[in-house]
Amino acid sequence: MTAELALRREVARFQTPSLRRSLFQVATSFGGFFATCGAMYGLVDVSCWLALALAPLAAGFLVRIFIIQHDCGHLSFFRSRRANTLVGTACSLLTLAPYASWRRQHAGHHAVWNNLDRRESGADIYSSCLTIAEYRRLSRGGRFWYRATRHPLVANVLLPPLVFMLLYRLPFDMPKPWRKERRMVHLTSLALVAMLIGLGQLLGYDRVSIVQLPVLTLAAIAGVWLFAVQHRGETIRWFRHDAWDATTAAMQSATCLRLPRILQWFTGNIGFHHVHHLNPGVPNYRLQECHDRIAVGRDIPTLSFWQGQRALGFALWDEKRARMATFREAARA
Fold first, then answer.
1. What whole-number percentage of the chain has pLDDT above 70?
2. Does residue 282 register a pLDDT over 70?
3. Tens digit of pLDDT for each residue in 226-258?
4. Domains identified in the chain, total number
5. What values do phi and psi take at 313, rounded to 5?
6. Residues linked to residue 316 through DSSP beta bridges, in sequence order
7. What is the gyration radius of the CA atoms in the chain, in angstroms?
8. Please, what sign has the CA dihedral across residues 320, 323, 324, 329?
9. I need a labelling partner for 101 at 20 to 30 A (CA). Which of 11, 93, 167, 296 fits?
10. Cβ-contact 134, 218 below 8 angstroms
11. Where do the coiled-coil regions begin and end (predicted)?
């Protein structure tokens, strides 16, 4: 038995979901989110600032709900496909990310991550990059646009709320054969409009804006940062297709993001991203125990929270030195 096969068999032991743990996670995540938002609505009339002080907490619960949706999309949260679909769809009405289309697009990411020859068949700006040679061949305007769209303030602060609130409302980038996914985008948007009107009529549109917009904005920023940093950093590797295999890519092209315990809870252990890529069927609440089992003696790219901030600057692949590079390094090389 090869080492790769042995590793995958070891990880597969952790992919069975627990109904009790899944239901408990649903209850605490949805319950925490609704309770915190309810408290915010109650505080708005007392002080907007007191209400906004709870926005990061509500956003944390919303990120956790997105992780549940993410697991449902991989059919790893429940044994039943129908249960995964129902809960994942319910999550999408809070996260604003249409379940069916996001699931299919995300599956594309898992098929091609850090494969230099398949970057255009399912990747996005948060899990893709140019080589230094490709970047230099761009026109001056092309290089400016590439740098601007990947600047941490643009890619990780300005764009995420726009993606979740506006771009996900229309199937602008989906192939026409994706009829079911395109239809579900429209149905999700209609449901969100109905919910917004209902909340506005019940609580007042100004109060809904004061509460929901900051929460959605913070959650979008945090969620995108989490997924962006998982494939960034100086030690992350990219491979040409003939040298790419899923096991090696999982262990060398996805990070282990070490977060404080409370942030690890809110982010559903997604920091153990190398385990997730080894086997997307492992539910989020089993990722750490799986990591603890397989990490001994293995060199896994690891980032602290603060190293994760710096990792966003590595946006180019240096094929000559086989390492990630920053734009400043590309200018000097």
1. 97
2. yes
3. 988 888 888 889 999 999 988 888 888 888 999
4. 1
5. -75, -15
6. 130, 325
7. 20
8. negative
9. 11
10. no
11. none
CB within 8 A of 45, min separation 6: which ones? none
Dump pLDDT digits (tens) for 116-133: 888 876 556 667 889 999
Domain that holds residue 208: 3-332
* Closest of 238, 247, 264, 254 to residue 301, by C-alpha: 254
Write the burial class of residue 74 (CB in 10 Å: 0-12 exposed, 13-18 middle, 19+ buried): buried
For the chain, the three-class secondary structure string (H helix, E strand, C coil) is CCHHHHHHHHHHCCCCCCHHHHHHHHHHHHHHHHHHHHHHHHHHCCCHHHHHHCHHHHHHHHHHHHHHHHHHHCCCCCCCHHHHHHHHHHHHHHHCCCHHHHHHHHHHHHHHCCEHHHCCCCCCCCCCCEEHHHHHHCCHHHHHHHHHHCCHHHHHHHHHHHHHHCHHHCCCCCCCCCHHHHHHHHHHHHHHHHHHHHHHHHHCHHHHHHHHHHHHHHHHHHHHHHHHHCCCCCCCCCECHHHCCHHHHHHHCCCEEECCHHHHHHCCCCCEHHHHHHCCCCCHHHHHHHHHHHCCCCCCCEEEHHHHHHHCCCCEEECCCCEEECHHHHHHC
Residue type at 307?
Q
Looking up tokens 């740098």, which residue turns up?
Answer: 147
- The token duo for 283 is 């539910």
Residue 297 has pLDDT above 70, yes or no: no
Taking the chain, what is the end-to-end CA distance rounded to the nearest angstrom?
Answer: 43
Task: Please give the Cα distance from 111 to 83 (Å, whole number).
Answer: 24
The answer to whether the beta carbons of residues 150 and 125 sit under 8 Å apart is yes
Q: Are 113 and 253 in contact (CB under 8 A)?
A: yes
Residue 60 to residues 30, 157, 263: CA-CA distances in angstroms? 11, 16, 8
pLDDT beyond 90 at 175: no
Output the pLDDT for position 227. 86
Q: Report which listed range, 92-101, 164-173, 320-329, is most confident.
A: 92-101
